[in-house]
Amino acid sequence: MEIDEKIDAEPLSEAFSFTREKKKAMHGLKGILAGIVADKRLNELEFLFLDPWLQSQQYLADDKDVRDILQRVGDILEDGQVSRDELALMQAHIERVASERMSADTDTVASMDELIGFITGVASDGVLNDDEIVALSDWLLQNSAIQKVWPATIIADRLETILNDGTIYEKERANLLAAINKITGEGAAHFESSTDM
């Protein structure tokens, strides 16, 4: 049998790239789902963030959970209003999907993809509350292998400072949110203005 440089009419490099991008998207999704419900509350801004993010993920188009979440989001948005009951049901569904996707994957790249997803999820509504900060700290403790890898080092250092005295101050919260936004590419202008404080 002759080795062909194509798989399903795609060059091997493209096939491997697709596989890597799909894995990256899956780990990102896992992180985002865990992040948006880290405080045990799914709010409307987090919900509205989820829909376009999922729709933009071409590598997840064939994922059963993604299709199911998109269908549920579409059903909820159909009447133009998001009720508390709908948010609560969606939160329960997202928590179930996120817990099912938990893995013992110790791959640094996969963990970093998940971290980026997690911080994107917790900051998707532009607010970091105490529960989200503690959940982020817990996540980093459970994934300690990446704490010395940038950008996890930045987040770990900020969390250590924030949690060291047992009180989370607004300036610390704003500084962490600004750092997260800069890492994820969201709100970079906000980061510049908050570091001038």
Keywords for this entry:
197 residues; mainly alpha; two-stranded antiparallel sheet; 9 helices; 2 strands; globular
How would you describe this protein?
This protein has one domain (11-194). It is built from nine helices and two strands; from the N terminus they run ββααααααααα. Mean pLDDT is 75; it is low at 1-16 and 188-197. Strand 1 (6-7) and strand 2 form a beta hairpin. It is an all-alpha fold and 197 residues long. The chain has a two-stranded antiparallel sheet with strand order 1-2. It has helices spanning 12-36, 44-55, 64-77, 84-100, 108-122, 130-142, 152-164, 170-184, 188-194, and strands at residues 6-7, 10-11.
Write down the overall geometry.
Answer: globular
Task: Let me know the number of strands.
Answer: 2
| Largest sheet features | 2 strands, antiparallel
The helicity comes to: 55-70%
Low-pLDDT residue spans: 1-16, 188-197
Tell me the distance between the termini: 67 Å
Biggest β-sheet: strands ordered side by side in the sheet: 1-2
Output the number of helix runs. 9
- Spatial extent as radius of gyration: 18 Å
- Secondary-structure-derived class: mainly alpha
Proportion of residues in extended strands? under 5%
**Number of domains in the coordinates?**
1
Overall mean confidence score, pLDDT: 75
Query: What series of H and E elements makes up the topology?
Result: EEHHHHHHHHH
Q: What topology does this entry show?
A:
Elements: E1 6-7, E2 10-11, H1 12-36, H2 44-55, H3 64-77, H4 84-100, H5 108-122, H6 130-142, H7 152-164, H8 170-184, H9 188-194
Antiparallel strand pairs: 1-2
